[in-house]
């Protein structure tokens, strides 16, 4: 049978809590009997109600490239992260700048990145970004050597709470961040300065 708006909201909220990953509208529809599946408009209305209801709570509803998810607000990350023994991974300035260049100028080659940064891009930096599945090879440039072309992935958008590349912050905002030290990044894109250390990556300054 058809659900009233409040029941629909609670069902979706429960599913998002249980899933532990983003769910898109199609996946949310599949929670219901085929004869009584809510349409996209009803689902969006329920999601809007969940978002409005999160005001004043430590959690929030976010729309990413893979769908909708419930997560702890970034300002509570310093406390919540203590539930896990493993500390947030640190990301070097070089890694952050490399990822930012790929995000804003994709598709780009390693040579393109080196031309902008003025220094060589280490193989470890590229390997780390590929292992995190934040970038991928989308082709090869038709020049001698056929260098790989890199672009960002859906996982990159999900990690930084973006539903599309159009939501990337203006370059001016990124330049205001201090990348003289490494950054610790937690899911949701929150960042804290830490002792510099060569390791994996996340967005940062694009020249």
CATH topology of the largest domain: Arc Repressor Mutant, subunit A
Helicity, in percent? 25-40%
CATH class of the largest domain, named Mainly Alpha
Largest sheet: 3 strands, antiparallel
Radius of gyration, in Å, reads 20 Å
Strand tally: 7
Describe this structure in words.
Helix 1 crosses helix 3. The chain has nine helices and seven strands, in the order H-H-H-E-E-H-E-H-H-H-E-E-H-H-E-E. It is elongated and about 60 Å long. The longest helix has 15 residues. It has 207 residues and is α+β, with helices and mostly antiparallel strands. 38% of the residues lie in helices and 17% in strands. The protein has two domains: 68 residues, Winged helix-like DNA-binding domain superfamily/Winged helix DNA-binding domain (Arc Repressor Mutant, subunit A, Orthogonal Bundle), CATH 1.10.10; 105 residues, Orthogonal Bundle (Arc Repressor Mutant, subunit A).
Strand and helix layout:
Layout: H1 5-19, H2 25-29, H3 40-53, E1 59-64, E2 67-72, H4 77-80, E3 90-91, H5 93-105, H6 110-117, H7 123-131, E4 135-140, E5 148-152, H8 154-159, H9 171-175, E6 182-186, E7 190-194
Antiparallel strand pairs: 1-2, 3-6, 4-5, 6-7
Helix pairs in contact: 1-3
């Amino acid at each position: 049978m058809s659900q009233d708006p409040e029941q629909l909201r609670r069902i979706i909220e429960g599913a998002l809590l249980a899933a532990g990953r983003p769910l898109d509208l199609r996946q949310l529809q599949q929670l219901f009997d085929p004869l009584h599946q809510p349409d996209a408009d009803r689902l969006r209305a329920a999601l809007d109600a969940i978002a409005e209801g999160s005001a004043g709570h430590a959690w929030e509803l976010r729309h990413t490239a893979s769908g909708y998810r419930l997560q702890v607000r970034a300002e509570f990350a310093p406390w919540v992260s203590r539930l896990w023994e493993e500390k947030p991974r640190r990301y070097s300035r070089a890694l952050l700048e490399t990822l930012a260049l790929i995000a804003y100028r994709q598709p780009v080659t390693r040579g393109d990145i080196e031309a902008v940064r003025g220094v060589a891009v280490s193989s470890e930096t590229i390997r780390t970004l590929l292992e995190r599945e934040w970038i991928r090879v989308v082709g090869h440039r038709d020049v001698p050597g056929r260098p790989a072309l890199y672009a960002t992935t859906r996982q990159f958008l999900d990690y930084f709470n973006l539903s599309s590349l159009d939501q990337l912050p203006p370059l001016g905002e990124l330049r205001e961040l201090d990348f003289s030290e490494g950054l610790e990044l937690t899911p949701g894109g929150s960042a804290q300065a830490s002792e510099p250390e060569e390791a994996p990556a996340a967005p940062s300054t694009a020249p």
